[in-house]
Amino acid sequence: MCGVILSAGTSTRMGRDKALLPWPPAASGSNCSNGETLLSAAILALKPFTEAIVVVAGRNADKIAPVVAANGSSMVRNPDPDRGQFSSLQVGLHEVLARGCDAAMITLVDCPPLCAASMEKLSTSFDRALALGKWGVAPESNGRRGHPLLASRALIDAFLAAPVTSNAREIKRAHAQLIEAVPVPDSFVCVDVNTPEEYAALLAAGSKPH
Questions:
Q1: How far is the C-alpha of 9 from the C-alpha of 17, rounded, in Å?
Q2: Are the C-beta atoms of residues 53 and 46 closer than 8 Å to each other?
Q3: Pairing state of beta strands 104-108 and 2-7?
Q4: Cβ neighbours of 135 (radius 10 Å)
Q5: All structural domains of the chain with their residue ranges
Q6: Which one, out of 106, 137, 190, 201, has a CA that is 20 to 30 A from the CA of 153?
Q7: Is the pLDDT of residue 192 over 60?
């Protein structure tokens, strides 16, 4: 299993790189007492369940490289991030296969990581799902699915066979019967941090999933 963190976006709506937002958020919303960020938190969340972690960067590569290196992961650049997020996914998955891995744990840098118990449940459910012929598992909360997505080689191949103009949602929908939903208690399953207002809302709600 290889981790893939998509972090090549321009963070235009946020106004600063989302990968470097303090996480967990400090009470002030401007500093983080332990120096962690959304990117470092994502790496740490995936690390116990993966052999290696690949962070897909774009024009922000130089900015996030120190975080990637400090947390023992690797970085690969999307040469043309303007093609969209699906192109970053394909770049990351090509790297997964190049490393000899046949499964991937995929997440977005702006999706706060799930708690360890939920991650453990996903990992265990993935092994069981594969034995039943499934292609992957995804966490679900309140009827909505989120990240990380655990993908088998078959699902990886489906992502890579699609045109770069496609998107992950289309591929998952086409193979919905082969992707198992795993109920987890985390409210972060469906959270995306795209704007300062959304980040502020997390501060107001508290940084711990519930």
A1: 8
A2: yes
A3: parallel
A4: 21
A5: 2-203
A6: 190
A7: yes
More confident residue, 15 or 80: 80
How many degrees, rounded to 5, is the angle at CA 123 between CA 202 and CA 198? 15
CATH number given to 2-203: 3.90.550.10
| Cα 85 from chain centroid (whole Å) | 12
Separation CA 60–CA 133 (nearest Å): 38
Task: Using DSSP bridges, classify how beta strands 136-141 and 74-77 pair: parallel, antiparallel or unpaired.
Answer: unpaired
Q: At what angle do helices 153-161 and 85-98 cross, to 10 degrees?
A: 130
Q: What is the dihedral of CA 8, 79, 147, 196, to 10 degrees?
A: 20
66, two tokens: 């120190």
Q: What are the start-end ranges of the E strands in 30-178?
A: 52-57, 74-77, 104-108, 136-141, 144-145, 149-151
Bridge partners of 4? 54, 106
Q: How far apart are CA 164 and CA 127, in angstroms?
A: 29
| Cα-based angle 40, 205, 5 (whole degrees, multiple of 5) | 25
Question: Facing residues of 144 across strands?
Answer: 141
The stretch 55-78 carries a mean pLDDT of 97
Banded pLDDT at 147 (limits 50, 70, 90): very high
Determine how β-strand 149-151 pairs with β-strand 104-108.
Answer: antiparallel
CA 161 to chain centre: 21
Rounded mean pLDDT of 180-208? 78
